[in-house]
Amino acid sequence: MKKTLKIATRKSPMALYQAKFVQDQLEKFHPNLTCELVEFQTDGDRFLDKPLTNIGGKALFVKALEQGLYQGEADIAVHCVKDMPCELPEGLVMAAVLKRDNPCDAFVSNDYASLEVLPIQSVVGTSSPRRASQLLRLRPDIHIKPLRGNVLSRLEKLDEKEFDAILLAVAGLERLSISHRIAQRLDPYVFVPAIGQGALCVECLASRTDLLTYLRPLHDKATAVAIIAERRVNQILQGGCHAALGAHAVLSGQDLQLNAMVLSQDGVETIYAQGIDDQSQAQQLGEKIADDLLRQGARALLE
User: Fold this and answer.
1) From the centroid of its chain, how far is CA 170?
2) Which of 51, 110, 127, 205 lies in the 20 to 30 Å Cα band around 31?
3) Alpha carbon distance 297, 45 (integer Å)
4) What is the CATH architecture of 220-303?
């Protein structure tokens, strides 16, 4: 007899693709398993006319799905790690972290090949404080215009000439098979990605230990180690939805390298830290990098 697993997902094309990917992986590894997608409307998707920083931040993308887990409407939920709060709600765990896709940011433009050749006074679309601050650090002449909505609607606004360029996640464009829209992949050591960018995770109730057997084949240790280090930086810094904060970790052999950046809103002030340690010390490495940033004055930029 087949077991049925209910997967909570948002309704956007990207979220549905990601949930379907997890469904396919689970059914591939477990032929006795049938998965059903349960779609939820989140406040993050509903209130597109307001900046996320004004209505609760990225957590708005996960709360409805987590409520579905609490209420038994779904067994697991699929999220982008970058949307997850640095501290999970009581009774919930990140049970699996999937192999990371490209973590970089994408410069997308119909007319210009790179950020460097963008004309002076150009208009670039993003509602991310991290992206906006790093844009202004590199190109203080440009104008930042808010841009929200799903990937396809953002591209439509670019095509309608509302912007000279927009910034998106490379991973999202690749997942939707529209990576041809990318003009430039931004160097993650220069333009530091969001914490967890490019990685998916599966969340469930901590009490549902019966699910771990199903989720184990989906878990990627190298990605999980990097995510632990990146998320530890924010757990210490407590950078909220207004914070211009990025972190990027890469595992090479046994060595884990982590770099992180905190910026002022206008991009004028930048604090950068990097370090390397054994992968077994991922959490401690995150703590060291956070402490380094704080010693350099990051707290003032985060408040």
Assistant:
1) 11
2) 205
3) 35
4) 2-Layer Sandwich (3.30)
What end-to-end distance do the CA atoms of the chain give, in Å? 55
**Catalytic (active-site) positions:** 83
- 1-98+199-219 has which CATH code? 3.40.190.10
Domain with CATH 3.40.190.10 in the chain: 1-98+199-219, 105-185
Contact 22, 218 (CB under 8 A): yes
Strands 184-185 and 105-108: what pairing? antiparallel
Q: Mean pLDDT per segment of 10 residues, for the chain of length 303 residues?
A: 92 94 98 96 59 57 93 97 92 98 98 98 96 98 95 96 98 96 97 98 97 97 98 92 92 98 97 98 98 97 90
Class of 105-185 in CATH: alpha beta
Q: Using an 8 Å Cβ cutoff, are 32 and 3 in contact?
A: yes
DSSP reduced 3-state for 30 = coil
User: What token pair was written down for 135?
Assistant: 């844009």
CA separation for the pair 54, 266 (Å, rounded): 18
